[in-house]
């Protein structure tokens, strides 16, 4: 569990693998383990007036936090609203303009409305309606362009969602790593304290020197510095998680689950095949290419005229029959060299630009997948080396060195070096595991797959 004392965080829980072995060998502990340590659940408390304690002190699953971020993150919600707004545009731009209703009144001999019927046969009142009619196909193209815009906004929403999820995963994994590092530093501090006591005891009986004691104390101070740095990073990550989750700073801190290695069930070729259809950034670029193609077609349509139809009823004096007037108008694009041709040229250049951007995004996505796959694959191999070779070997070296030092057959400098090897290798294991999980999260963002849940091709 985690206990918060004034200005100091004391950690208790599972020991790092190598140190469990070392403690057992040196008599500090009476048991050992063959697996990397599990992260003990706990919470870091801040002043009561600022935070509430987590109700049960139980780690929060990552999946639950992802659901919370999808519900509450402002960037995701803003992108979702932008997408929904864009879906309302196609019907607007593909519909005919509203008809125009007109009222006409002609008076003769008097400026007052409706004052001329008694003194002139030319006075009349008229009611009319007119409708603009774009050239056939223009409305359809505008609607399709708006649909492409809506599809692009949908991909922007998905890209924003995945980006926030990736950031959330990275912060969550880093928080689990930082808590594990605090455990390692705490346990190694105790082991170093044991070594320092042995050095001090040997110095008192004349078998050692004061320099050995001072070196041990120096390393203890360095570990205290590391502890403070991990505390700072821990609180920074808590703030980042609450930012991504849109939580109040006074809400409980996030307690992560144990950082474990995610199995990898996809090949790089399978992931490259997925990225072309599943990467929202890539799909958004593809939608832009389609949109610009439609824009070129619409620009070419502007070489054709638009139309206007008007119908009017006119009423004069009672002794005269009513007039009915039908008007058909044409808007002719006569400034083609200054308007329509530059419009087509602009649309064509925009189309070429969007194609090049799409090609560039394809290559960038392919590179990112290959790079993150290599990162995940390499770190998985290194983790196996840590578990099966480096950590046990360092543990055995330190065990033998500690026994030799107690028997006055080894100098303190060599013992201290072997101790630091154990410390750095244990820290290196968890840092490599963090890099592995971060690479996996990035791959899942790019491809939209869950790398440890490969679907059955027979289903």
Helical segment tally?
A: 10
What do the pLDDT scores average to? Answer: 79
Share in β-strands: 5-15%
Evaluate the radius of gyration.
37 Å
The succession of helices and strands, N to C, reads: EEHHHHEEHHHHEEHH
Strand order of the largest sheet: 3-4-5-6
Shape: elongated
The helix content, as a percent range, equals: 55-70%
- What is the CATH homologous superfamily assignment of the largest domain? Outer membrane efflux proteins (OEP)
Give the N-to-C terminal Cα separation: 45 Å
Low-pLDDT stretches are 1-56
CATH C-level class of the largest domain? Mainly Alpha
Question: Could you explain how this protein is built, in words?
Answer:
The protein has 459 residues and is α+β, with helices and mostly antiparallel strands. Helices cover 61% and strands 10% of the residues. It has 2 domains: 2-94 and 138-300 and 339-447, Outer membrane efflux proteins (OEP) (Up-down Bundle); 100-133 and 303-331. The longest helix is centred in the middle third of the chain and has 67 residues, at 138-204. The model is unreliable at 1-56 (pLDDT under 50).
